[in-house]
Amino acid sequence: MAAKKDMRRLDLAIPYIEPPTSKNDADVSGAMSSTMPMAAMFTRNRMIGWVSFVFSLQNWLGETEDQKSSSSTPAYMSVFMSFMALVVTYFPIFLPPQNQRAGATPAPSAS
Questions:
Q1: 20 to 30 Å CA-CA from 67: which of 7, 22, 79, 87?
Q2: pTM of the prediction?
Q3: What share of the chain has pLDDT > 70, as a percent?
Q4: Where are the domains of the chain?
């Protein structure tokens, strides 16, 4: 069987040009990296804490110069917030609440 001839024409090829980004585009990754640590602290969910830490770390490492100049807070602050969310979620392991610590002793009666 004979090899088929390539029918593509190079003179008709159009190179890819990336569309310009709009200044009005919302920074979804910045909003996520600032709200996820708060959700982890409120719910004391460790999984949300770890996801927020990894997400904010990736957001900080992938930050462009335009994002640095246009953002109101630096990206390392969201990394710090997500780390503090991890500290809050793991805090009861190292310092349990008072009612669990003294749970074995009965409370004194009022009579």
A1: 87
A2: 0.65
A3: 83
A4: 48-94
